[in-house]
Design a protein that fits this description.
about 75% helix, about 110 residues, mainly alpha, binds zinc ion, 5 helices, extended, single chain
């Protein structure tokens, strides 16, 4: 295998990994639909199985649940609004966590 071939196969592999990752993790809309109980039972099962094995998505889902309960009327929001509110919610959450972490441990190593 020459250099160009090896680069090509590397790129192809990276692309496939990214694609499979996108396929595997349910997106925000799917999690929202799962929370709202609007998925078909097949889709709901798929997400439930995924949540059982993926702590990243559990964190995301729990955050989403908090977010939906925190927001006054999330169902009237458009996808753009939802994404935007979600991002500002995450930002607030991150800030709260940062403050909490600083209170617990004022000297951050590194
Ligand atoms: Zn996941």
């Amino acid at each position: 295998m020459d250099f160009q071939q090896s680069v090509q196969s590397y790129m192809q592999q990276a692309q496939e990994e990214r694609r499979s990752e996108v396929d595997t993790h349910p997106d925000l809309q799917a999690l929202r639909a799962y929370h709202g109980n609007t998925l078909s039972s097949d889709e709901a099962d798929r997400i439930q199985e995924h949540l059982a094995t993926c702590s990243d998505c559990v964190q995301l889902f729990l955050g989403l649940v908090n977010f939906l309960e925190w927001d006054l009327d999330p169902h009237r929001l458009s996808v753009d609004d939802l994404t935007h509110s979600w991002e500002s919610f995450l930002e607030k959450k991150r800030e709260q966590e940062k403050v909490a972490a600083e209170e617990l441990c004022p000297i951050v190593p590194g």
